Amino acid sequence: MAKPIVALVGRPNVGKSTLFNRLAGERLAVVHEIPGTTRDRNVAEAEWNGVAFDLVDTGGFDPSVDETLDEKYLPQIRAQAEQAILDAEAIIFLVDGASGVSPLDHEIADVLRREEIPILLVVNKIDSGARGDRSSEFYELGLGDPIPISALHGRGTGDMLDEITQVLDREPEEPVDDDEIKIAIVGRPNVGKSSLLNRLLGEERVIVSPLPGTTRDAIDTHLSYEDVPLTLIDTAGIRRRGRIKPGVEKYSSMRAQKAIQRADVALLLIDGTEGVTAQDAHIAGMILENLKSVLLLVNKWDIVPDEIRDIQAYDYHIRAALKFLDFVPVLFISALVGTNVHKVLPAALHIQEERLRRIPTSRLNEVLLEAQAAHAPPSKAGSRLRIYFASQVRTDPPTFLFHVNNPKLVHFSYARFLENRIREEYSYEGTPIRLSFRKRS
User: Fold this and answer.
1) What are phi and psi of 120, to 5 degrees?
2) CB 187 within 8 A of CB 219
């Protein structure tokens, strides 16, 4: 049974992201004192008293905003909040107990009263008993009894969660295994990550803007593709460490790195009009450091100049610039017009299958005997490396254990030679391989 959705809405800077992080149990949303930090819907799993639900954080909700305002993102923020409300089975309407009732609170309350779902009026920033009396003024919004809390300190959040589980009226669910394949969309800013996600989903799930840096949080989207459960993770663009601004952008880069760490397959986007940059190589290295599988996507192929619009030559350029990704497949796409986007998910699923491939021990050792016959193991100070036996000890990522006479005799070039021979037999396309050498006891 699908988990119910609880939407967290309110005007900007009332503490929605702080409450979201507390309920989710970790810092999932960027928290900053600047209003409007959260722009997209952010989703996390939460549980209370055995009742599991999906909590949806939204951008600051202003029902009266129009295109004439200086903040260009506000109309899109409103659309995201409205979509979250449409999907929700309950709404937490968060207001600011420190500043009191505002005209914007009244406007939002007017919108929410039209919804035929439970609405919890939650008064945040009630950090002391003296402030508790101020929550009573929110009765004028006509949404029932206010629930005073402090999202920052956790005061009153248990009572609020009790109310949520009551209005959801669901039986406690049995825990289920997380068998979804997690695919992270990563790349430097403004290469088209959010556009690709929207094209894959066929809906405006996240805000897309021509300005770099629009996506600040890592956003999970759950879907099923050919009966395979997937999680697509859209992330903030990753900049070089020295160019990361303090505050929001710093947290966004950290969150993108964490998205890579929890992914199975990373879709690495590069801008086809600019070619491979040093930052693209840095991100690729970050993916491999975490032993994640990779699909390389050359985006904006529809606007690449004709003089360099040659797939074979461009592929050679990529291989030369990213020599350590020679096992990674490349797709030339346009997220904007949809060119080859239909190939992305099938390719990612194939790479995941490769990641889970297991080689029979007997065949692995046959490959190693053939490799040693073709290229004798190295020697040092009169002692030659001897490989007695090897086995694949795990998948995800594929890991091979070699029993040898002396691990110190293994030169990195010979280890790479062995990896290449394994790949000649079993390609492990898009997937890094880990070789471990142990002295036989």
Assistant:
1) -100, 120
2) no
